[in-house]
Amino acid sequence: MSGAAGRGTGGTIAAATRRGWGIGAGDDAAARLRRRFPTYRALQRRARWRVPRFAYDFVAGGVGDGAPNVAHNRAAMDQVRILPRYGVDVSRIETGVRLFGRDYAMPVGVAPMGNTGLIWPRADAILAAAAQRARIPYVSSTVANVSIEELARIAPDVLWFQLYGLPGDDHRLSFDLVARAERAGAQALLLTVDVPTRQKRVQDVRNGLSVPFRWRPRTVFDIATSPLWALEILRHGQPRFPNFAPYLGAGAGTADLAAFAYEKMTSGLTWEVMARIRDAWPRALILKGPLHPEDAERAIAIGFDGLLVTNHGGRQLDAAPASVDVLPAIVAQARGRATVMLDGSVRSGLDVARALALGAAGTLAGRAFLWSVAALGEAGGDHATAAFGEEIRGVFAQIGARSPEEAARATVQHPGALRFQPEAAAAPPSPIAAGRPPVLEGLAAR
Ligand SMILES: Cc1cc2nc3c(=O)[nH]c(=O)nc-3n(C[C@H](O)[C@H](O)[C@H](O)COP(=O)(O)O)c2cc1C
Q1: What residues contact residue 240 under an 8 Å CB cut-off, 6+ apart?
Q2: Whose CA is nearest to atom 21 of ligand 1?
Q3: Using CA positions, which residue lies closest to atom 10 of ligand 1?
Q4: Which atom of ligand 1 is found nearest the CA of 345?
Q5: 312 flagged as catalytic
Q6: Which residues surround ligand 1 with Cβ inside 6 Å?
Q7: From the CB of residue 273, how many other CB atoms can be counted at a distance below 10 Å?
């Protein structure tokens, strides 16, 4: 946890910098940023102003026309209500969690995101450093713009690695990346199962998204009207995929690496390959993307330690349910045999608390961290981790929880929860229909 929000102050501005009464009274740099960018929305607006359209759309977008699943994730999250509980002494709130045998300071980490250098050069390094300072998980993507080895130096205590299937030559590259992640000290390996093929992200198609950039008139205009971003790109160069550099030789340029990354990711991971990776990887193994209880069950049978319930931030199947709506069913299926986590529209401490109350052991967030870096550059990582810490404490205090374990016992209303039990059709009418208080609906859904 960075700055004043982390320790014993309940997230308020440190007394030394206070110049009066009120949340806006602090005058250090972090306090000034908090005033200007108090929410995800403020950061996203600022990012929109700072970066070219094609880069903004790449992050904001999802699959299908208008990216409906991104909005659906948000709407579903907003529907989850938590009952406040009062009269509890919440002067000491602990936000720490133990995940896969390691201690982390908060039940939220940075989700794997590829090609983040498009939105801000060195975003991977900025977020990894912030995660290390905040002691929260940082998951590096296969297609990160900073290599797994460099990220291990930046975030040695909190690094996880995400793998896409690279099927050529009987998955030789996949297994080599697994071995490199182990040597680099990654504590957990996430296998992303929800990308059996690339998907059509309509905005990216319209924008002619390409790395290296295609110099169309519109690209030039976009870049010319984003001078801060353009200066950073001039300093650091266009995004590269350095995880692939060892396979191409020293002379490989940006375009070679980008073409290699694109060509090698032709199909996804099968259960058979995932079972072989289980044998090869000695630490925590997490399946990223199970949305059906039967897939969760299969993963548990193979020996996965964790299940990350996600629809890839609305980027893969526009008709997929919101991840938060599937979470209770996967938790029920896991029955404690695997650690269940959630991502998908986790934008604030409130969303983290919602996930905990629905049975997740922790969460990851993607865009919440990335917009912060796009908006604020170097300062964006710490700004985002401090905001999560402050908000988690604020929500915990409202629901009478002094720890994530106590937050997990909160009473929730979750009308969108999916039910998979075959007997569901024959189940008695919902508590609402039976005239009981609607708040019990969420409990019934668990
Ligand atoms: C720009 C961007 C790039 C992403 N790249 C990857 C990736 O390389 N590997 C992966 O498993 N998931 C990737 N994801 C999905 C995230 O890991 C995560 O599931 C998603 O962002 C969560 O939703 P949220 O952004 O609403 O928090 C990406 C998401 C975004 C926004």
Answers
A1: 117, 145, 254, 257, 258
A2: 366
A3: 112
A4: 26
A5: yes
A6: 59, 111-114, 141, 143, 162, 192, 288, 310, 312-313, 315, 343-346, 365-368
A7: 17
Query: Pocket of ligand 1, candidates 44, 54, 113: which has the most ligand atoms within 8 Å of its Cβ, to mutate?
Result: 113
Instruction: Report the percent of the chain where pLDDT is more than 70.
Output: 90
Q: Which ligand 1 atom is at minimum distance from the Cα of 313?
A: 23
Q: Is the pLDDT of residue 13 over 90?
A: no
Q: For residue 312, give the ligand 1 atom closest to its CA.
A: 19
Interval between CA 24 and ligand 1 midpoint (Å): 33
The per-residue pLDDT of the chain, averaged, comes to: 90
Neighbours of 318 (CB within 10 A): 20
Distance 113 CA to ligand 1 centre (A): 5
0.85 cut: is pTM over it?
yes
Q: How far is the CA of 255 from the centre of ligand 1 (A)?
A: 23
Q: Tell me: the pLDDT tens digits for 137-174?
A: 999 999 999 999 999 999 999 999 999 999 988 999 99
> Candidates 78, 264, 312: which one to mutate for ligand 1, based on the most atoms within 8 Å of Cβ?
312
Q: Which atom of ligand 1 is closest in space to residue 144's alpha carbon? A: 8
Cα–Cα distance, 369 to 136 (Å, whole number): 12
Closest C-alpha residue for ligand 1 atom 26: 345
Report the pLDDT value the prediction gives residue 14, as an integer from 0 to 100. 52
Segment 22-30 shows an average pLDDT of 81
Q: How confident is the model at residue 24 (pLDDT cuts 50, 70, 90)?
A: confident
Lowest mean pLDDT among 210-214, 387-391, 415-419: 210-214
Asked whether the predicted pLDDT for residue 336 surpasses 50, the reply is yes
Structural domains of the chain sorted by starting position, each given as residue range(s) with its CATH number in brackets: 69-199+265-439 (3.20.20.70), 202-262 (no CATH)
**Pairing between β-strand 159-163 and β-strand 188-192 as defined by DSSP bridges:** parallel
